[in-house]
Amino acid sequence: MAIKTEEMVLNMGPQHPSTHGVLRLELILEGELIVDVKPHVGYLHRCFEKHCEAMTYPQVVPYTDRMDYLSSMYNNFGYAVAVERLLGIEVPERVEYIRVIMGELQRIASHLVAIGTYGLDIGAFTPFLYCFRDRERILSLFEMTCGARLLYNYIWVGGLSHDLHPDFVRLTRDFLNDFKPTIKELNNLLSYNKIFIERTANVGVLPLDTAINYGMTGPNLRASGLAFDLRREDPYSIYDRFDFNIPVGEGTHGTVGDCWDRYYVRVLEMYESIRIIEQALDKLPEGDVTSAIPKRIKPPKGTIYTRVENPRGELGYFIISDGSLNPFRVKVRGPSFISLELMGELCKGHLVSDVVAVLGSIDIVLGEVDR
Length: 371
Prior knowledge:
Strand content: 5-15%
Number of helices: 16
CATH topology: Cytochrome-c3 Hydrogenase, chain B
CATH architecture: Orthogonal Bundle
Order of helices and strands: EHEEHHHHHEEHHHHHHEEEHHHH
Number of domains: 1
Mean pLDDT: 94
Number of strands: 8
Low-confidence stretches: none
């Protein structure tokens, strides 16, 4: 006679360690095995989209910082591109190059947090310190430029709030030269660590067809084997002028699209960001970064949807203009929110201890999930 068992419901979170913010995961278990995972959001609701309706177009920029606060510069970038297309204006060449430099520095800084905290989730503390040490140098470059280290309000509609500091180019090159060997050091410390590989290889496998059906983008999609990057597939700004590769998951330690692949794609992307920054620094033109900023931003009636490749994937802004100084509606398509949908699929059949490994591998930021 078969023994009947009952499913058990276990709440994980909401607390910041392991669940990466105020996220509650409802685990449906059969013993130690996971049957399903249901994410519960809403503890950090920021009302970003509603706030936009009461703000003028320039006043929205600081609010974009506060969504994905590990990618604030890219949030500014995406919003500025959307409003500029709505207005039909072009920005100076120098502005475009500086935006790309800042955006790729932000990508490296964001990936360093993703990698460092992922090691921490698995139980490795030292890589976390290494990653934050290098991230501090990037934040110092941002602080030198605009006075802020986390929420920048730097990329404005039509231009930038400040031009580069006279020492910025030299210090950025110094950082890039120092950082290249540091990535190798990080790989030896964490990426190729036997325990880390055993905790992440063949765990949370995301097949490519499932990733596409769920609307996954960014590193999580590329880890499943598809070289899809908006900087190449749907170029914006001046990304079509740069030479860079698109890393994809290869199933090095198991199946393509597992937790290790999602982690390692981000490591490889830092190399490509370095290449882009170096090319942009070499070609950086002179010019005025504020000359194209409109005195008053009042787009004509219409709608626009633009998308950019932020560190977590496709960040899209859908804006409806009614011809006034305030946007009638701003809707954001956030990559973290889309990625969180997959927790149930990725965790099925794994152990409770694997939930943290899977959640860390998709790299969510709750500020953008609960925007």
